[in-house]
Amino acid sequence: MTADQQAAWLLAWSIAGRSRVRVGRWDGRRDKWEYSTRDERDLTDEVPGKPAAALLYNSHGMCRTFVVDVDVPGTAGRQVLHQIVALLEILSRPVDEEFQAAC
Fold it and tell me: What local confidence, expressed as pLDDT, does residue 66 receive?
């Protein structure tokens, strides 16, 4: 696993509505990846060996997610990934009382 893959996987914690993930299973007949409930497991820091999808919706069907699909290779992709991580860190900070009162 590369450092970039590990960093990208850690973003799953920021976007997941539940701490669950579905690991992909290749369906050769349909020529595509399937993400069924039978392949669902707890979301951990361990990067799956196959494509995986963090569950975005909570048990009430609500989604509190900012989704970004980063498929940019090389240096440009790493820069975008670092910028997204920085943005998510800012968005996940608690709102202080002074700011909240001003709104």
Answer: 66
